[in-house]
Specification:
alpha+beta; Umud Fragment, subunit A; seven-stranded antiparallel beta sheet; two-stranded antiparallel sheet; 11 strands; elongated
């Protein structure tokens, strides 16, 4: 269950107070710290947070409110995701110059990393150069056996060699592995000789 804005403020206040003082705030200190109308209002928010498993509370004990592991796990995950973000500062012309602009957006790599179904490979060869995938590039791959026609996939061919190509299914239970290089011919194989091992997510290149 999602937190309301005020519930999030109460939770953050309690966690911050515990870090600063080494013990939990009293209900009165929470009310004063957040300018809440009454102790009853604090009690209402703490009860809701306890129901949502963000807080533990001892009965009839002063300063008995403790932040639950769920909150700490979410904070850790949020910090990790934030560390995987870089600001998007605009666009850059590779042809005619364009006007620069201020943009507060960020690019997050958390969509790609930190997932057990994502892995990286280093590219050898230039069979996909027309798709801007060059020798030495690193590719991020989703570990999957499913792909649509036209997807760029990692495939195991004949149980022996892997390759990166666009995949197409053709009549007669055939598979066409299409390179993105005009100097190379497509590879056509029986479907049973082709095993999809992953689908391309992103290409990374260092200069």
């Amino acid at each position: 269950m999602a937190l309301t804005r005020r519930q999030k403020e109460v939770l953050d206040f309690i966690a911050g107070y515990q870090v600063e003082h080494g013990y939990s705030p009293s209900y009165d200190e929470i009310a004063r710290g957040l300018n809440l109308a009454s102790i009853a209002t604090v009690h209402k928010h703490i009860s809701a947070l306890q129901t949502k498993n963000y807080l533990h509370r001892g009965h009839n004990q002063s300063r008995s409110v403790e932040v639950a592991p769920r909150y700490l796990q979410e904070q850790r995950r949020n910090r990790m995701e934030a560390s995987l973000e870089v600001p998007i500062l605009g666009s850059i012309a590779a042809g005619v110059p364009v006007e620069t602009y201020d943009d507060k957006a960020t690019l997050s790599f958390s969509d790609f990393v930190g997932h057990k179904d994502t892995y990286a490979l280093r590219v050898r060869g230039n069979s996909m150069v027309d798709d801007h995938i060059c020798e030495g590039d690193m590719i991020l791959v989703e570990n999957t056996v499913e792909a649509h026609d036209g997807d760029i996939v990692v495939v195991l061919v004949g149980g022996k060699e892997t390759t990166l190509k666009r995949i197409y299914r053709e009549p007669g239970n055939q598979i066409r592995l299409q390179p993105a290089n005009a100097a190379m011919s497509p590879i056509r194989l029986p479907a049973h000789d082709v095993q999809i091992q992953g689908r391309l997510l992103a290409v990374l290149r260092k200069y």
